[in-house]
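Input record (one chain):
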Amino acid sequence: MTIAEKVAYIQGLFDGLKLDTEKSGEARILSEVLDVLREVGLQLDGIDTAMDQFDEELDTLEDTVADLEDAVFDDADETDADFDGFGGEDDEEDFFEIPCPTCGEELVVDDEALAAGLVECPTCGGKFALSFDDEGDKASEDE
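The corresponding structure, as predicted from the sequence alone:
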C-alpha cells in the first residue's frame, strides 16, 4: 500500500467519525494534518514515478555507453594493428617505432622519413640517419 493509499484510509476513518471541524479544535487539527499528509503522499508518489523513469533512462544510457565502449575499444585494437603496419591490404603507409639514440624516446617513423633518411627527435632535437643495413654498418665500424 502506498503512502497516498494509507492517507486515504485514515481520511476514511476520520470521515467515519463524523467529527465537526467547526466546533472541535482537535477535529480541525486532524483534518489539516490529513490534508498535509495527502499532499506529501501525492508528492512522494510523483517522486517514485520520476525515479522509475530516471532508472529506465539510466539503464538505456548504460547500454549505450557499453555499446560505444565496445565499438571504440574493439576498433582501437584494430587501429593499433593498422598503425603497426599489420592492418591489411588497404594500408597506404607503413609506420614503425624506433628509439631516439640520444634520449631514448620512441619515435614513429613513416615512409616519408625513411625516404629522407634523416629523423629529428621532437623531444630532444637530436638528428640521426636511418639505416637498415645493420651488418654493413658493423662491417664499416670494424674496419
